[in-house]
Amino acid sequence: MKKKTNKNNKRNKKRLNKINIISAIIIVFIIIGISAAGGFFLYIYFNAPEFNTDLLYKKESSNIYDSKGNLIATIGTEKRQIVSYEELPQVLIDAIIATEDSRFFEHNGLDAPRFLKASYGYFTGENAGGASTLTMQVSKNTFTSTESEGLDGIIRKFTDIYLSVFKIEKDYSKEDIIEFYVNAPYLGGGNYGVQMAARTYFQKDVGDLNLIESAIIAGMFQAPGEYDPYINPDKTNERKNEVLDLMLRHGYITETEAKVAKEIDISEVVKDTSSTVNPYQGFIDTVVQEVIDRTGYNPYETSMDIYSTMVKSKQDVINKFYKTHKFKDNKVQVGIGMIDNDTGAIIAVGAGRNKKGAMSLNYATQINRHPGSTAKPLFDYGPGIEYKNWSTYTPFIDKAVKYTNGGTMRNVDGRYLGFLTLEQCLVKSRNTCALQAFKSLSNSKINKFVTSLGITPEYLGNNNYINEAHSIGGFNGVSPVQLAAAYSAFGNGGYYTEPHSITKIVYKNSKEEVVEEFNFDKNKVMKNTTAYMIAYMLKKVTSSSVKVKGTDLATKTGTSSYDEATLKKLHLSSSVIQDAWTVTFSPDYSVAIWYGYDKLTKKTYNTSSHAWSERTKIQKEIVNKVMEKNSKFKRPSGIVAARVVVGTNPPLLANSHTPSSKVQTHLFLKGYQPTKVASYTAPKKETTTDNTTNSTNNSTSNTTTTQIPSVISPQ
Questions:
Q1: Which of 58, 206, 249, 589 is the most exposed place for a label (fewest CB within 10 A)?
Q2: What are the residue numbers of the active site?
Q3: In the chain, pLDDT over 90 holds for what percent of residues?
Q4: CA 135 to chain CA centroid, nearest Å
Q5: In the prediction, which pLDDT does 163 show?
Q6: Out of 7-21, 574-588, 664-678, which region has the weakest mean confidence (pLDDT)?
Q7: Which residues contact 189 (CB under 8 A, 6 or more apart)?
Q8: Mean pLDDT over all residues of the chain?
Q9: Which fold has domain 374-471?
Q10: Residue range 78-268 in CATH 3.40.50.880
């Protein structure tokens, strides 16, 4: 019995020792945790900035310089008029509180339940909404930063909490804080504070705002660029409706008021006012947006010197074009992107006609339109030459070609021409040949080629599969700058550099001067032989009216069409087209021009004949004045030229007996030798009949008689 008791005592002692050890470890961790937390909060206390109301409304302007260091704009000089709490309409206060901080009048600067919920969501990967109170946003917008990731984000968040609880809410009333909130921030269009925003967007004082107008302004605080009614009216309208839903949820408006307000589009309340704008506003907008995208800082809010890539003499040509060209009406738009082939620098833009002010829709960089046939060198013939060693002679048959998943490709003119060389297919822009080329290539290789040129296809499924409509530009689209940058690789021997409008930023409000320089890699994306063959062929597309002394100019045009149902709904003919494109490049520069309307209506549309004529006129007005003189494409050593008999497969070298009408000069990769013949025999005639109705363009082909060799396929 005694032995048993001793064993139990020993067992209990061991258990107690383990408990003591675990307890000690827990206590140590608690002490370490408390010490770390204490140290963290001491760090916040000693490093938090002072809350100075003078800083709320004083910011040094930003300067933008051109490529030669000449000042072209000073922005961010704050257009602001301070209003008091009493001048604010209750409906605007309600909209802001409902949207940003529904318990604003109840907390002391920190909404603990909301903060804990957001923190839990952050660590679990769930979106639980933001944790910043309206007071914390006052701190963040002026005294700390917008940093939200990692340790810096945590420090910033707790600094905002400290300033909010122990500085702002302690020393100022709720009404004062609302004044800080509504008067300080940038609200688009070069405006600071709600009073200037109200005057700009609605041509009234803030005190006269109604429910819809208040919802628009309240929705802009978090992202003034994204919800600017001049730049993104559709997004602004969606945001307005979100604010109305929040006002309804928190009891500020009735269901009837919310419903009526939602049914009114912002276009009915936002005023279309014209103002005196900087002549380089389009390029300024391009620079500002790129700075925001690359750094997260808005030059209208953060003081900086920005060194851009704009070449004033080139930009002046585009500016003059907008002023002097005779447009068919006041609504048709033109977007232009001009790229330096050697560096990828955006040297001039056509951001759109009739600019209303800063940061309106940029037609050079912010539109995505179907590129039409300008896609053919990118998705079809470029990859074929690059990966399958095609020549300019590579033979095709222009005939009805079915899409893999049904439907038939047709040409714009509804005709089929039979035997064509690759050069003829590209220069004549035959759709059926483009689809044949696309189908004969590896889809992954096409994807590799176009993405290396900065083009983003519209994928099907999860394996980056590109559908066949891309062969003629049937995908979500490109901007003029994107397209010009892609074509620049054909002009410079096969190199692509990401298009950019900035080279350096100097931050002015830092204690020490902070300089951020931007370097962009020049990547080899295709062989120089591929680039040259495309350029060589596209020189033959350039109109005789488009010329620069001593300079090679290559051109590709493109149009996109509407589907039959859309045209039928508006009672418009099949000749109505959607987008008209012209891309022109020399060894020095690439210029992409888009011509069209924002929306199709019974009054705003282009026909194919008008667009084809107009785009050549625009191309002439721009290209003839911006390209350098005496610049020629240099043929690489890896290419040979040969006079061959057209209509033969394989290609036959011409001889003295060959009729001159059947002879063309074509480019081949060095090492490929066309077959020599002693005499010339005309290829046999073959009659083909095709009555296939095209599912895309809804036309029927006719019987054609063409001279076709017995076997024709891409090399």
A1: 58
A2: 100, 373
A3: 63
A4: 34
A5: 76
A6: 7-21
A7: 197, 200, 201, 228, 230, 357, 358, 359
A8: 86
A9: Beta-lactamase (3.40.710)
A10: no
